[in-house]
Amino acid sequence: MARWTFAALYAASLVVPAAIWNHNHAALTGLDSAGLKLAWCRLAGLWAVIVVLWQLLFVSRARTMEQTFGFDRLTRFHHYNGFFAVLLLLFHGSLAIMGHAAKADLTNMEQITDFWKIWKYMQAAISGQVLFLTVTLFSIGIIRRRLSYEAWHWSHLAGYLALALAFWHQIFHGRDLVDNAGQRYAWIAIQLAAVAVLIWGRAVLPVLRSFRYRFRVEKLVKEADDINSVYITAEGLDSLAPRGGQFVMVRFLAKGFWSQSHPFSLSMPPRNNTLRLTIKSIGDFTAKIPGLVPGTRVMIDGPHGIFTARRATGKKVLLIAGGIGITPLRAIVEELLADKRQVTLLYNARNEKSLALRQELESLAANPDFRLVLILSHDETWAGEKGKLDEEKIARLVSDVAEHEVFLCGPPPMMAATRKTLEKLGVKPEKIFTEEFAL
Amino acid sequence: MKKLVLCVSLFLGIAGMTIAQDQTAPAEPAKETAVQTEELKIGTTVENLQAALTGELSAKERYLAFSAKADEEGYLQVGRLFRATARSEEVHAGRLAKSIEKMGGTPVMDAQKPEVATTRENLEAAVKGESYENTTMYPAFIKKAEEEKAEAALYPFKGAMAAEEGHARFYSEALKDLEATKQLGVEYLVCLTCGYTTDDAAIQKCPVCEAPREKFETVK
Ligand SMILES: Cc1cc2nc3c(=O)[nH]c(=O)nc-3n(C[C@H](O)[C@H](O)[C@H](O)COP(=O)(O)OP(=O)(O)OC[C@H]3O[C@@H](n4cnc5c(N)ncnc54)[C@H](O)[C@@H]3O)c2cc1C
Ligand SMILES: [Fe+2]
């Protein structure tokens, strides 16, 4: 589906309830100030739920959506959309307090106590609101950076609890839902549908796939300092149609591994029922990779992402890798060459020891359509290109860079800087494809 | 991201505008009525609150007496109805008193002694009293409170007015077939926030003040 289709769906999902809300009570006419506050309170509440349901869809890994936007962009939507949801929730909560307080002649504090003590399901709703706020707080950049990925990830589950906690007060106090059974059932149905899509995509599908394709660790190969390749075999892999450059969320079903799933790119075009991941040890999970035992069963959620050779439409393609960002590009090179494109790969690493997959890249470079340039930033003895990948280097190494489509993958600061440089050198933003190794 | 900001500011803008607009909107003119206007003295809002308070307290006493009379005469359903409306007037009185305090006055909790006749006459008198309140007195008081921008008085007046209209309707219905009220029928529910009185057992939200079902008291 096209992007604008989703944009239209998103807009419609807000406009339609607003129209119904307006129709239900001619919401903005003949109301006094407390009545108006409560009317806006209801709209903010309805919208908040819709926006939260989009949150679920954005991370449901539903294929249509993912193939349209890519995993990273959906993750970004989820991030910003979450703040939008909380903003609506804050409106909803404070308007509810102020509106009802005015109608009942209570102070705001008395009204909150009244909600808590007398109103049914409001304890749950208020707890849900607090949970939502906490989850959002944990996702603000400076706080998130202080949390481990796992702490952040688990805190996010509280969001689902919050959605469930908030449900009942809608049904019992939401004027639009109380007054009209049809609207109430429709409301329940869309919430169930969104949750179902999420559970299907995140839990059911990965389990089904693991049974169907019977993924297992075949072998481990050391590629460089701290970098290992994990070969995973499968049965009947063709029907899953993974493409080089895509990534999978893997869960190794072995002691010490099974509780976490992590994303890794396919570092070789899938063939002969084999997937290869090339993993750099940087933290608790990845450090354990060398200890994986061949034969271990693997659960795979994916393939995900749209960082594949299919994005390229022109003849000339430039690939830029920083460090472990080489993994998807290594797979993409091969598919681009099979497609008869002219490919240049600028591969940046710290030193010779940290170059992964060098041999296979060099043997691919026997193809006259493929030019490989290794650039080392911290290696004085290196005879080739040295230092950082800056404007001067790109302009010199790829003189007609503006005529290229560019695939870029590496550490976030390097990606941001390189993107800027490329645009300065005349590459159109929509011709730059990226994959970020961070969710 | 830009779209998001746009969306949010649009929402904020509309919300802000409507709230602001509401506060500056001219007060709606009160309904013109000829009934008993000569008796109505419109004072300051605090004085009006006190007048209404005395009226509600008196009504409560009156309805309790009417209720006892109806039970005595065997009009059990009317007895129940008067108990419900008495409860409703008590709620109104409570809010009016609170409102007087909020506006810096001291509520005087005096009630007139009720005059009790036959149940039919009591019902007729009650219809008159309620109609006067909801078509003449409260509209005038509300208009005055709006002029004075006395927010604290507005909702007690409005809540009471809406309830009195319902009361009058229930009394008129009972009068249509008084004999039938010897059998107990529906129970009444009274909103403890605004005094709204209804015989709809399935009510979920108060149509006047948006209070939930939990705020309703069932009068047996
Ligand atoms: C789309 C994508 C493709 C990737 N491809 C590769 C690859 O081919 N090779 C490779 O070596 N690395 C790849 N990564 C990075 C890899 O996922 C992380 O390095 C790894 O998850 C770190 O886990 P850790 O527990 O060892 O390290 P930690 O020190 O716990 O985490 C380091 C950082 O990695 C990220 N991270 C940690 N756990 C997860 C998780 N469960 N899910 C998502 N992100 C997490 C967080 O940003 C965290 O701050 C990819 C990441 C993404 C998002
Ligand atoms: Fe009420």
Helices and strands in order:
The complex is a heterodimer of chains A (439) and B (220).
Chain A: H1 3-25, H2 33-58, H3 63-69, H4 71-104, H5 108-117, H6 122-138, H7 141-144, H8 149-173, H9 175-179, H10 181-213, E1 216-224, E2 227-233, E3 247-252, E4 262-265, E5 274-280, H11 284-287, E6 298-304, E7 316-322, H12 326-338, E8 342-349, H13 358-364, E9 370-376, E10 385-386, H14 391-397, E11 405-409, H15 412-424, E12 432-435
Parallel strand pairs in A: 7-8, 7-11, 8-9, 9-10, 11-12
Antiparallel strand pairs in A: 1-2, 2-5, 3-4, 3-6
Chain B: H1 2-24, H2 45-73, H3 76-102, H4 119-147, H5 151-176, E1 188-191, E2 197-198, E3 216-219
Helix pairs in contact in B: 2-3, 2-4, 3-5, 4-5
Textual characterization of the structure:
- The complex is a heterodimer of chains A (439) and B (220).
- Chain A contains 15 helices and 12 strands.
- Chain A is of the alpha/beta class and 439 residues long.
- Chain A has 3 domains: 177 residues, no CATH class; 92 residues, Elongation Factor Tu (Ef-tu), domain 3; 126 residues, Nucleotide-binding domain of ferredoxin-NADP reductase (FNR) module (Rossmann fold, 3-Layer(aba) Sandwich).
- In chain A, the strands form 3 sheets. In chain A, strands 10-9-8-7-11-12 form a 6-stranded parallel sheet, sandwiched between helices. A 3-stranded antiparallel sheet of chain A has the order 1-2-5, with no helix packed on it.
- The longest helix of chain A is centred in the first third of the chain and has 34 residues.
- The mean pLDDT of chain A is 91.
- Chain B has 5 helices and 3 strands.
- Chain B is globular.
- About 10% of the residues of chain B have low confidence.
- Chain B has a domain of 151 residues: Ferritin.
- The N and C termini of chain B lie far apart (58 Å).
- A 3-stranded antiparallel sheet of chain B has the order 2-1-3.
- Chains A and B meet through helix 2, helix 4 and helix 9 of A and helix 1, helix 3 and helix 5 of B.
